[in-house]
Amino acid sequence: MADQERKGWFGRLKDGLKRSTGQLTGSISAVFTRRKLDDEALEDLEEILIRADLGVQAAARITTEIAKGRYDKDVTDEEVRGALADSVASTLKPVALPLELDVDRKPNVVLVVGVNGVGKTTTIGKIAHHQREIGHKVVLCAGDTFRAAAIDQLKIWGERTGAEVVARESGADSAGLAFDALKRAREVSADLLLIDTAGRLQNKANLMAELEKIVRVLKKQDESAPHAVLLVLDATTGQNAVNQVEVFRDVCQVTGLVMTKLDGSARGGVLVAVAEKFGLPVHYVGVGEQAEDLRPFDADEFARALCGVAD
Questions:
Q1: Is 287:84 a contact under the CB 8 Å cutoff?
Q2: Is the dihedral of CA 46, 47, 49, 54 positive or negative?
Q3: How does pLDDT run across 142-180, given as a tens digit for each residue?
Q4: What single DSSP character describes residue 34?
Q5: Beta bridge partner(s), residue 110
Q6: What is this structure's pTM?
Q7: CATH code of the region 108-298
Q8: Domain boundaries, the chain
C-alpha cells in the first residue's frame, strides 16, 4: 500500500514538473543525439542547466561531475539525463530533511514566513492536514492580519483539518495574536502551533520589525520559541526565489524551506540553485491545490522527475 501510494505521488510529481522537465530534457535531446562530450558540448550543457534555473554555481559543478569518466566519449541524451539526475540527487540529498517535532515539547512553535502570493496560508493548512493524519494535535494562528482573505482561508483549513484556529479581525496586532495563540496551544497541550505571518517585502525594515516583535512576545512564554522558521517559496518566481531566501535569512533565522507551485512553472530547477547556495533543509514540495499535493521532500524522486528518468 505504501509503495503504491509512493508511486502515485511520484506520478503526481512527474505531472507537476512536466513543464520544467519538458524544457530541460528537450534542450538536452537537441544537443546530445549521439555526440562527443567535448568542451563545446559541456558548454552547451552548462548553458541548458542555467536556463533551467539550476543556477550558475550548480550548473558549473554538475557539468564538471558529468564530464568525469565521459569526457571526449560519445554520449546519448539518455545517458546525460541519467548522469544529471544522479548529480541533482546528490546535491539535494543533504537538504532533504523532514519536519521533525520534538514529542516532549508541547507545543512545537513553527513560524511560517514568505512573500504574499507564494501560498503560505494554504501551505500551513496542508502541513496541518499531514500532522493531524499522524495523530498530532495542531493549533493554527491567523497571523497575516493585513489580509482578511488569509484569515478566512486559514479558518476554512482549520475546519477541514480539525485544527483549532486562533484569529482576530483584520488589522489586529499580529504579535499580540501570536502571544494568545501560544497561550491557547499550551492550554490544550497541542503538539504543534503553526503561525501565519504577513509577507510584505516592499519595506524590509517594517517586515523585520514585525517579525522581531512576534519572536519577542513568543519568548515571553517560551524562551526557546519559535522552534522552526519555515520559508515558503513559489517555484514560478525562478531565480527570484534565491533573492527571497537571502532577504528572509537576514530578517529572521530561517531553519527550513517549502517549495510550492512546482506544477505551475518551467522553473522547478530553482530548487537545486537554492539548495546549492544556502544548504537549508527542504521539508516539503507542492505540486497542486489539494492537501495530498504537498509532501515531504524526497531528493531521488525529485531528481528523477525533473530529469525525465523513469521510476
A1: no
A2: positive
A3: 999 989 999 999 999 999 999 999 999 999 999 999 999
A4: S
A5: 194, 228
A6: 0.94
A7: 3.40.50.300
A8: 2-95, 108-298
